[in-house]
Amino acid sequence: MLKNRIIPCLDVKNGRVVKGINFVDLIDAGDPVEQAKIYDEQGADELCFLDITASNENRNIILDTVKKTAEKCFMPLTVGGGVRTLEDIRNLLLAGADKVSINTAAVSNKNLVKESSEKFGSQCIVVAVDAKKVKENKWEIFTHGGRKSTGIDALKFVEKMESLGAGEILLTSMDRDGTKKGYDLDLTKKVSKLVNIPVIASGGVGNLEHLHQGIKIGKANAVLAASIFHFGEFSIQDAKKYLDSKGIPVRI
Amino acid sequence: MFIAVIDYGSGNLKSAAKALEAASNNININSKIVVTSDPKIIKEANKIVLPGQGSFKDCCLGIKKISGLEDALNEFVLIKKKPIFGICVGMQLFARIGYESQETKGFGWIDGEVRKINNINKTLKLPHMGWNQIELIKDFTLFANLKNKSHMYFIHSYEFITREKDCIVATTNYGNSITVAVAKENIFGTQFHPEKSQKNGLVILENFLKWEF
Question: CATH code at B17?
Fold first, then answer.
């Protein structure tokens, strides 16, 4: 049976982890490769790097991080942040990423999703959707890290992305991101039911029950979280044991 | 031992090469792992790994584009009968024919076809993405030290359907039973990614390195 995935996400800026795990025995807590190794050992199902490097000059640093991680961690790795061109995608895949997530560019340049999925295969193209609730049962797409409204209906957008060849949707609720109040379950459920590609729920996890709800109520295939794992509050095993106790199929 | 990882412009070769290095360190085998598309170097290799990402059609075209590569692989596998390990689309290429985006001829080393997974009236998500358990159908050298129902990492929408049922060595369940590992003499392939399947994957790569055919 296919298992639900638990995916820790690391924010990386200029090659350094922004909010890292606070483990005492960590040699360099800011080194994304060290952090990735810990998640690998804990049995994370995938890893996600979000590159939040602002300046263009430093954008190639992420390639080095990906390269070093792929040499040490024999597990699936998704990399996103600032992906704009086919060349960006190719470089990340060659560095060792298995999947690349496209956010702003999926909105501004619809050909990118189509062309990249044709060229590299749908299996490695993830569309990262940042959605905000605008009224009851209506969500809109935001870009540029959630700062810019687009007026695009989120549900129509994910359907469009699927038809263009996206292999997976990484769905973040901008209302919940950073709140620790749990995923936007209505949104997650609607998107999961609408598309036939896997959906990763993201944004708002504050405890393990939130992961459970994302899968059970939100019908997500995978759950992504950052801070609950980084600060050592819970390990990946804690999360898996909890989900297992609730009857959710996970890899233990 | 000299292992060639075949580079024909398809996807993540670095991971496969690095995982092979880690596997050979684990079992203290002195091996040289080279990523190459050069038919001359391939001839010299003791074993080859054929990775594959993207569509069946693009992978076939990628191989045909490199002068002498297709012949070198056929010679290695059919005449020299040296061990080959196909991964994901690399395994699918063993089939006679593939139907992804358009009908395309494969190597035909194992009689079979590559078709889209039946997602049973859209009740299943495609790609089949993530960790699934494999059923070991046979007691097979390359599964030594591996427990039945071990988890492996999958990411694919097409499946290998073979008429040579004897070649099926592992399956998984995704709506229906799907063939996830095939073996025929010196030919071995997996639908899952051993180079992405953490410890379980490394065990299979170790067995491949140890394999004496």
Answer: 3.40.50.880
Nearest Cα of chain B lies from the Cα of A2 at a distance, in angstroms, of: 4
Mean pLDDT of the residues in chain A:
92
Confirm whether A130 is a catalytic residue: yes
> Which phi and psi angles does B131 have, rounded to 5°?
-100, 125
Binary contact (B130, A121; C-beta < 8 A): no
- At A100-133, the pLDDT tens digits run 999 999 999 979 999 999 888 899 999 999 999 9
Residue A21: the pLDDT is 52
Domain of residue B25, residue span: 2-210
C-alpha dist (Å) from residue B127 to A57, A60, A180, B87, B173: 35, 30, 30, 16, 14
Q: How confident is the model at residue A144 (pLDDT cuts 50, 70, 90)?
A: confident
> What does each C-alpha distance from A214 to A29, A75, A126 come to in angstroms?
29, 23, 19
Q: Are strands B112-116 and B158-162 parallel, antiparallel or unpaired?
A: antiparallel
Report the relative pairing of strands B168-174 and B151-156 from DSSP bridges: unpaired
Which of A177, A219, A202 lies closest to A101, judged by CA?
A202
Q: pLDDT tens digits, residue range B120-138?
A: 878 899 999 999 999 999 9
CA distances from B50 to A97, A110, B16, B35, B78 (A): 18, 33, 9, 10, 15
A118 DSSP 8-state letter: H
Q: What ipTM describes this predicted complex?
A: 0.94
**What's the topology of domain A5-245?**
TIM Barrel (3.20.20)
Q: Are the beta carbons of B15 and A98 separated by less than 8 Å?
A: yes
Q: Which of A138, A233, A214 is nearest to A170 (CA)?
A: A214
Asked if A177 and A203 count as a contact pair (C-beta separation under 8 A), the reply is yes
Q: What is the 3-state secondary structure (H, E, C) of A224-249?
A: EECHHHHCCCCCHHHHHHHHHHCCCC
DSSP letter for A43, please: T
Helix (H, G, I), strand (E, B) or coil at A107: helix
Total domains in chain B come to: 1
Q: Are A13 and A53 in contact (CB under 8 A)?
A: yes
**CA closest to B124 among chain A residues:** A196
A162, two tokens: 């699927």
Say how far apart CA B189 and CA A59 lie, in whole Å: 37
Give percent of chain A with pLDDT exceeding 90.
Answer: 81
Q: Which of A74, A94, A196 sits opposite B125 (nearest CB)?
A: A196
Cα-to-chain-centroid distance, residue B28 = 24
Domain boundaries, chain A: 5-245
